[in-house]
Structure formats: structure tokens, C-alpha cells
Amino acid sequence: MSTLLPSLGAGLVFGLALAAPPGPMNAVIAEESVVRGWAAGARAGLGAMSADALFFVLAALGLVAFVEQFPTVQAVMVGAGGVLMLYFAYGAAQETDTTFREAADPDEDSAGFTKAFVLALTNPYQILFWLTIGVGLLETGTVDVLAHTPYLGASLSNLLIVETGSPALILGFFGGIALWVTGFPAALVAAEQRVDSFAPAVAAVSAVVLGGFGVVFIWDAVQSLVFTWDAVRALVSIWDAVRSLVL
């Protein structure tokens, strides 16, 4: 009981620290929130969170670590994520002349969940997290919670170190993510209702963020695939040289 609340609290902070920084997933949540409303934004956030839950299950089964052994598969996933981000960036750019009150088709609300879920499955940041830190949450040990905060980790290291392997830590972690993906859309909708130009501005920023990350991820995937192919050709050359010497 003495470690339950600290573990829950640490997990909550960990989840918030990882979910809050700007990035492609928050760009999708922001766009859905200001264009289609809080429910659509929350659904998009839950789509991203569902991907984390799936990664958690795969990590528990050891399948996430298995993927780490195949760099080519990782590179293809990163490239696919980059292409999806460019596609969603185009969609966000088309909505820069839309306001929340003008948002039309309520049937499109549910598309945000699918969009965020699919994008999260190919998001290199989430994949890398569950290949490294996420797997460690399941094992007995310690984790420097704030050191893994995107962009600020180096300056926050050693401020909050907790024991891992606790169900309370995992519960708090997903609780922190849930708090962000419901609270962030609410804050955006409240701001949009006060400023008419807020929705177009958020859609434009979302398009830029998604497009920028898309280009970076595609470039990273291309470099990884070229490196892998060069390594394969080098191994083939070595094999041919060895065969010629033996024969």
C-alpha cells in the first residue's frame, strides 16, 4: 500500500510527460478537435492510446523485441508512417478555411480514431519507446521517468526515478495518457469558441507539423534501407571472395 500511490503518481506523470510534447499525434488530435469538436478530438486521442495499449500487449508477449531484430521491417514501418503523415498533412491543409461551427459531416468524427490509430502504429517515436523504455516498464528495475520526456529529457534527468514492474505504474502511465487525450481537446475547443481564427490556424500548424515529420521519417527510412542494402551487398561480396579462395 505504501508504494501504490507513489507508483500511480509516477505513472501518471510519465504518461503526461510522453503524451504532451508537440508531435504528429498531437497535431492530429488538435486538428480533429478544432474542426469537428471535443468528441472527435478525444476519439483521435483514444486511437493513439489504443495503439499504445496494443504495443504494451505485444511487448508483454515479447513480439516488440522480436521486431527489433529486423531493421528492414522497422525502416519500412517508418517510411509508411512518413507517407501517412504527408497524406494527413494534405487533409489538414484543406481544412485551413474551416471553423468549428462550420464543421459539417458528423459522420466523419469516427474517422479520427482510425486515422490516429493507424498513424500511431507506424509512428517511429512510439515504436522506439516500446522497443526500449516500454519493455523496461514490465521488468523489475528502475526508470528515470522525466529523462524520457521528448525535447527536455536531458535537463529533467534524475528528478523522478521509480521502480518498474509494478501494475500501479502501468495503470498510472495509461491514466496519464488518457488525461491528456481528453483534456487537450477540451482546452482547444474552449479556445476555438473564443477566437474565430483559431481553427484555421491550428489546421495550418497541424499540416506543417505532419508534413515536416513525414519528410523526416521518409528520409530516415530511405537512408536505413540504403544502408541495409549496402550491407547486404557487402556481405554478398565477402561471401563471393571467400568462395573464390576456397574453391
Describe this structure in words.
With 247 residues, this protein is mostly helical. The chain has one domain (4-246). It has 11 helices and 2 strands. It has helices at 4-19, 24-36, 38-61, 63-67, 71-94, 111-121, 124-131, 133-137, 153-156, 167-192, 198-246, and strands spanning 141-144, 161-164. Strands 1-2 form a two-stranded antiparallel sheet. α2 packs across α10 (167-192) and α3 runs antiparallel to α10 (167-192). The longest helix has 49 residues, at 198-246. It is flat and about 75 Å long. Keywords: Cell membrane, Membrane, Transmembrane, Transmembrane helix. InterPro entries: LeuE-type. Pfam families: LysE.
Topology:
Blueprint: H1 4-19, H2 24-36, H3 38-61, H4 63-67, H5 71-94, H6 111-121, H7 124-131, H8 133-137, E1 141-144, H9 153-156, E2 161-164, H10 167-192, H11 198-246
Antiparallel strand pairs: 1-2
Give the tags.
mainly alpha; 3% strand; two-stranded antiparallel sheet
> How many distinct helices?
11
Give a quick account of the main beta sheet: strands, pairing sense, barrel closure.
2 strands, antiparallel
Task: Write down the secondary-structure element order.
Answer: HHHHHHHHEHEHH
Helix content: over 70%
Distance between the termini: 70 Å
- Report strand order across the widest sheet: 1-2
Question: Average pLDDT across residues?
Answer: 75
Low-confidence stretches: 100-104
Helix and strand content put the structural class at mainly alpha
Overall morphology: flat
Structural domain tally:
1
Tally of extended strands? Answer: 2
Query: What value does the Rg take, in angstroms?
Result: 21 Å
Beta fraction: under 5%
